[in-house]
Write a structure and sequence with these properties.
The structure is a single chain. The chain is of the alpha+beta class. 50% of the residues lie in helices and 14% in strands. Strand 7 and strand 8 form a beta hairpin.
Length: 206
Amino acid sequence: MKKPNTKSYVEILAPNHPSCNSKGYVFEHRLVIEKHIGRYLTGVEVVHHINEIRKDNNIKNLQLCKTKKEHSRIHNGWWVDNEKWFKNCPDCNKCFEVNEINFSVRGKKCEGNFKSRCRECSRKQDKRYKDIVRHNKDYRIKNAKRTREWTKNNKEKKKQADKEYAQKNKEKIKKYKDKYRKDNIEKIRKLQRDWHRNKVLNLVIK
């Protein structure tokens, strides 16, 4: 008895199968591969649909992957040839064997987790990023120097600008000052209470 799944996979009723679900159904693509190999699949092994049509469970359309990692690699454009993995770099579109010589690893603890770009393209990208960061730093330093020079040479202009701002925004400044005073008063009162409590506790202990 066949039944389509919610994820468009086909299921078959096989209650005596060791990897059946609670209702007694098993995926058809797993049963086809098991029949072709002559053994049960382990929980780690995954079946890949070559044309990515999940209902097409012909043996020519199925490929057995040893782990979920291999299955995700195939979906990301990797392929195997003589037990060696190959992939294309998205920037230069060149084909490379996937190893630490051609691709850099994402982290020291991440074994086999390689970056998408090849080493040459990743170096170029790092150089661009460093140039952008340097440019931003230089720009900020120049702006800071200009503001300092302007304040030194134009102190009277700055005072006038501050006065004009204070006249225009009197209400905002008052609200800010009131909030700041209230917050400070509450903090000071808390500190005083804590100090008195500690003093009393020290006297009681003695």
